[in-house]
Amino acid sequence: MYPGQSVKDLIESLNVPHVEVDLILINGVSVDFSFQPAPGDYISVYPVFESLNIENVTRLRPLPLRVPAFALDVHLGKLARYLRLLGFRAAYRKNWDDAELVAYGVANSLIVLTRDRGLLKRKLLKRGMFVFSTDPEEQLREICRRLDLYSMVNPYTRCLSCGGKLRDLVYGSGEFLSVQERIPPGVLSWCREYSLCTVCGKLFWKGSHIKHLDRIIRTIQDECLL
Ligand SMILES: [Zn+2]
Asked: For residue 172, how far is its CA from the centre of ligand 1 (angstroms)?
């Protein structure tokens, strides 16, 4: 620590992105990023809270996120699909550059997920997290663990392609009949459960891929019990 150093610079010098911090206490009192600690001060730094309401004490964010939603960097496409699988809003465009990603995340109050530490240092960014793992399934476990997302998991409610909300179709209903021609005969002969994306119109059914997806969901639910 050097004279005049802000608590934000001090935290980032320890390799913690400021966008992962939701509460700073100096000697038990909440301060903002510009505060300059003195030698002997006792500094407590807390991550983004999702399960504990700290609205009355934090000075860093206007409103903590209570239902986490995400924007993902271009190298995290698979993680975006897995977050959608669990029911979370996960915006992703494979042609986003860094500035577009940050702007979209800020405009929509999203947590920007990335493996690029430089991106998390951008001043404009309000909420972000560095993703440590390089394996998509482990990345999903990591995010659920760090943000304590377990109680908010709501599988098979979002489109894996675009992230839009899914609506279940009643088998045999008029709406079902209007999309029936899109269902392969081999599926139609046995499957009774279908859902439709309310944004892109993609049709989903519980096909052979479901075992893989079920396994991913079960892994998360099992971790919740640990
Ligand atoms: Zn969709």
From this structure: 22
21 and 40: one domain? Answer: yes
Instruction: Report if residue 186 sits inside a domain.
Output: no
Closest CA to 121 of 35, 32, 15, 50: 15
Q: Is residue 166 part of a domain?
A: no
Judge if 47 and 85 occupy the same domain: no
pLDDT digits (tens, 9 = 90+) for 36-66: 998 889 888 887 655 455 555 655 655 555 6
Domain assignment present for residue 51? The answer is yes
Q: What is the CA radius of gyration of the chain?
A: 21
Task: Note down the domain range covering 43.
Answer: 1-63
How many angstroms separate the alpha carbon of residue 51 from the centre of ligand 1?
29
Q: How far is the CA of 163 from the centre of ligand 1 (A)?
A: 6
Tokens 């100096």 found at: 26
Report the distance separating Cα 88 and Cα 67, nearest Å: 9
Instruction: Report how far ligand 1's centroid is from the alpha carbon of 200 (Å).
Output: 4
Measured in Å, residue 167 CA sits from the centre of ligand 1 at: 11
Gap from CA of 119 to ligand 1 centroid (Å)? 28
Q: How many domains does the chain have?
A: 2
Cα angle 163, 167, 170 (rounded to 5 degrees) comes to 155
Query: 79 with 138, same domain?
Result: yes
Q: Using the mean position of ligand 1's atoms as its centre, give its distance from the Cα of residue 182 in Å.
A: 15
Q: How far apart are CA 174 and CA 13, in angstroms?
A: 60
| Cα 147 to ligand 1 centre (Å) | 25
Task: Say if 180 falls within a structural domain.
Answer: no
- Cα(128) to ligand 1 centroid in Å equals 25
User: Tens digit of pLDDT for each residue in 148-193?
Assistant: 888 889 999 999 999 999 999 999 999 999 999 999 998 999 899 9
pTM: 0.77
